[in-house]
Specification:
seven-stranded mixed β-sheet, alpha/beta, Aspartate Aminotransferase, domain 1, 487 residues, four-stranded antiparallel β-sheet, single chain, Molybdopterin biosynthesis moea protein, domain 2, Aspartate Aminotransferase, domain 2, 22 strands
Length: 487
């Protein structure tokens, strides 16, 4: 018997909720980078077509076809030899890049603080994965950069490695020395893949760090929607040089992307590229001025801190993306989650993510002067309340949330672990068992545990600390149990 339930919304509950939110006064310091304003594409239904005559085919583009021209313009803007539109997000680009550079059963050198999509790519290939562990920045529990010397040493220790995968910038805006890492890879003839999902804006102002393509990476994936004015799910994949197999790359792009790519999303990318080409220089210059005024205005905070600049030169941090607003709460009896909740509830400002010791806001060129002023006023009011003791918040800081990326011990490769029989057990009984699934914080989607890894004391402590502080931990079932390999 089919279950029936009444729905009062004639236009659909999700649509109704979205339109209600649109008319509210919430200020967005989160992705997408268009910040829910500035769209001039008209009615999306009017341009939602399929591969009809004259409109090309993303998977089989015609010479001088409209999509070829659009992608070539994007390549010119980013100074890439070849650029592809992605309509399944950066995830599709990550999966395609790994599959193109690493054959089934091959070897991948992977930064342990990579997005889950990189692990999925390795798992699908049954690849052997060797890890690069980031340095650690104390105080806020933030991972630093990957040392080029660690890349060099790992490639020497494991000569069968066929590709290297790193992330720069991280969710917190930390950039590693991509140029030195690329040189280490190229000395051994190994392609470097860089997940630069959060750095699509880098090439358009010297205020931001050097982009990975200019630094010599072979394949670079960027989410247009994260920091530029484009619709969610839009991204770019750039490739240069001879180390990445471009034919395999094109093939896997057709595998991991829908066979019915959205012309609305592709038009959004194209419109964004045109906007940058025509107006980008002036608009980015004004954006940088707004960012700098905001940062100077936060200099008087006493409890809260706008962190980032002081990290450069420490713990493998080569540079820092100053568009990323990392607000530290380490001086006060307040967690990043509580700060984020206070901003949302009292000031209608929505941040991108929160952790035990900080909250993160994503700014973009679409943020107005009044948006930065509003966030600044809210932070100063909260800061004053904390200093004067008027904001009554319990001390919720937890031990175990500031540990660095934990070195892991793999009993099975990713591919083999995924094929094993599994069971769900109480997470408090999981110590020394072998993980059967992924366990990760979202955002940013970096796994604490990967299938085939042993659940060490350190990982178990981290899991419990995350649960106590209310962090969004994916991979547990509804009863809070964890999946392990059956003994």
């Amino acid at each position: 018997m089919t279950r029936q339930r009444e729905i009062d919304s004639p236009r659909g509950p999700l649509y109704e909720k979205l339109t209600a939110y649109q008319s509210a006064d919430y200020c967005a310091f989160h992705m997408p980078g268009h910040k829910r304003r500035g769209g001039d594409m008209g009615d999306p239904y009017g341009i939602d077509i399929t591969e009809i005559d004259g409109f090309d085919d993303l998977h089989h583009p015609q010479e001088q076809g409209i999509l070829v021209q659009a992608q070539e313009r994007a390549a010119l803007l980013y100074q890439a030899e070849e650029t592809h539109f992605l309509v399944n997000g950066s995830t599709a680009g990550v999966l395609s890049a790994i599959s193109a550079c690493v054959p089934p059963g091959g070897e991948l050198l992977l930064a342990r603080n990579s997005h889950r999509s990189a692990y999925h790519g390795a798992g699908l290939l049954g690849a052997a994965v060797w890890y690069l562990y980031p340095q650690f920045l104390g105080g806020l529990g933030i991972n630093g950069g990957i040392l080029p010397s660690d890349v060099e040493n790992s490639l020497a220790e494991h000569p069968g490695i066929q590709a290297v995968f790193v992330t720069s910038p991280t969710y917190e805006g930390i950039c590693l020395d991509v140029r030195a890492v690329a040189e280490a890879c190229h000395r051994r003839g190994v392609p470097l893949i860089v997940d630069q999902a959060h750095g699509a804006h880098f090439p358009f102002s010297g205020y931001f760090p050097e982009d990975a393509l200019a630094a010599g990476a072979d394949v670079v994936i960027q989410s247009v929607h994260k920091t530029l004015p484009a619709l969610t799910q839009t991204a770019l994949l750039h490739v240069q040089g001879e180390l990445a197999d471009r034919e395999r790359l094109r093939y896997y792009l057709s595998v991991y992307q829908t066979s019915s790519p959205s012309y609305v999303l592709m038009a959004s990318i194209d419109r964004c590229m045109e906007w940058i080409e025509r107006q980008g220089e002036g608009l980015f210059a004004a954006y940088v001025e707004r960012l700098e005024r905001f940062r100077r205005g936060c200099g008087g905070l006493k409890i809260l801190e706008l962190a980032g600049k002081e990290w450069v030169g420490k713990a493998g941090v080569w540079d820092f993306d100053r568009s990323r607003l990392v607000i530290s709460t380490r001086k006060g009896r307040i967690s990043g989650h509580e700060l984020s909740e206070c901003l949302r509830r009292r000031h209608h400002i929505e941040m991108e993510m929160a952790s035990a010791q900080y909250a993160v806001g994503i700014s973009s060129v679409a943020d107005r002067e009044e948006d930065f002023e509003r966030l600044g006023r809210a932070l100063r009011r909260i800061d004053d309340s904390l200093e004067e003791g008027r904001m009554q918040i319990p001390d919720s800081k937890e031990e175990g949330t500031e540990e660095p990326a934990l070195e892991t011990s793999a009993a099975f490769t990713l591919g083999n672990a995924l094929e094993q029989k599994k069971e769900w057990i109480d997470r408090k009984e999981c110590r020394n068992r072998i993980s059967g699934g992924y366990l990760y914080l979202y955002p940013p989607g970096i796994p604490l545990a990967v299938p085939g890894e042993r659940l060490t004391d350190g990982i178990c402590r981290k899991i419990e600390a995350c649960m106590r502080t209310g962090q969004e931990l994916h991979g547990l079932d509804r009863k809070g149990r964890i999946e392990v390999l059956r003994e």
